[in-house]
Design brief:
Layout (H helix, E strand, L loop, with lengths): L12 E4 L1 H5 L9 H13 L4 E6 L12 H7 L7 E5 L3 H9 L4 E7 L2 H8 L3 H17 L3 E7 L12 H14 L3 E6 L6 H15 L5 E5 L6 H11 L3 E4 L19 H10 L8 H15 L6 H5 L8
Parallel strand pairs: 1-8, 2-3, 3-4, 4-5, 5-6, 6-7, 7-8
Helix pairs in contact: 2-11, 6-7, 7-8, 8-9, 10-11
Length: about 300
């Protein structure tokens, strides 16, 4: 991969997903107050795009049943956007009640994972979003799209990237401002990532409206993000401390740790607007509210080191 990092960007955007994607798989129920403490710590660290809730049925994700209450308790700060997953029209009504500025719609590139995750076929899910996305936009709620299993499916194995491209194209057509591509099971490798992303670039012309959402199940999330950075991706999803995992993807470990991403970008001279020391403290808040150690490397080692000599 010659020419790597020959033209680094001055800045990138980080989309924080720990209060939703990070907490949804935790066995210990986190209080609403604990979630407020976590989100406030993330905002204090400089994060401006934070996925804080999910308006799916509480029966399926009881950990996130308090979405409206949480959003009413969170102080709003200029420049900070809170978002929530929204699978259907009932979820949109909850989003409107919570006065949220942004929702996320989600589906998979593989049929089996989509049926396990949403209980619908891909075609049925797209038909639903064809109505949902314009309805949200009509209420001044912008919409972000998520495509899961782009790098592979826990049930089907390899997934043809063209299936993910077709799904992303439909989401853009409906009105999504950005689509995040997910390595749901953390199976991706750098050469595979380059191949997939080049297909997306050929399809859409640039990465201006695409983001990467990498899980670190096999320790390759940062390496894959470096490939994306080199090719032109400028938005990366991450979760403080490396929290998260998909309940419908057996064995899927947490997301790329936000601290690990920011440490790397800081040392490479790429600005994110995020204070690493405060972010590290936010990770400690996350660890405290879930009551366990988190897997992120910087979370464990600390944001700095002492040089000798």
């Amino acid at each position: 991969m010659t020419g790597l990092f020959s033209a680094l960007p001055k800045e990138v955007s980080v989309y924080e997903v720990s209060p939703r994607d990070g907490l949804q798989n935790e066995s210990v129920t986190v209080s609403t107050e604990g979630k407020v403490e976590l989100v406030n710590a993330l905002v204090d660290a400089g994060l401006q795009r934070i996925e804080v809730a999910s308006f799916v049925s509480p029966k399926w994700v009881p950990q996130l049943a308090d979405g409206e209450q949480l959003l009413h308790l969170l102080p709003r700060k200029a420049g900070v956007v809170f978002s929530a997953l929204c699978p259907n029209m009932q979820g949109l009504e909850r989003a409107k009640s919570a006065r949220i500025e942004e929702i996320g719609v989600f589906l998979s590139a593989s049929e089996t994972h989509n049926k396990r995750n949403i209980n619908k076929t891909i075609a049925e899910t797209l038909a639903l979003f064809r109505e949902l996305v314009p309805a949200a936009l009509a209420n001044n709620i912008r919409v972000r799209g998520y495509v899961s299993t782009v790098w592979g499916c826990p049930y089907e194995g390899d997934v043809d990237p063209r299936r993910a491209i077709d799904v992303a194209a439909e989401l853009f057509k409906f009105g999504c401002y950005e689509v995040s591509l997910g390595d749901t099971i953390g199976a991706g490798t750098p050469l595979q990532t380059r191949s997939i992303l080049m297909l997306f670039k050929d399809a859409f012309g640039s990465f201006d409206r695409l983001a990467m959402h990498m899980h670190d199940t096999r320790g390759t999330a940062l390496a894959n993000c470096l490939v994306g950075l080199d090719l032109g991706v400028r938005t990366f999803d991450a979760a403080v401390g490396g929290m998260g995992g998909c309940p419908y993807a057996p064995g899927a470990a947490g997301n790329l740790a936000t601290e690990d991403l920011i440490y790397m970008l800081d040392k490479m001279g790429v600005s994110t607007g995020i204070d690493l020391d405060k972010l590290w403290k936010a990770g400690k808040v996350a660890s405290s509210v879930v009551g366990r150690a988190l897997p992120g490397k910087v979370h464990q080692a600390g944001p700095g080191f002492v040089r000798k000599g």
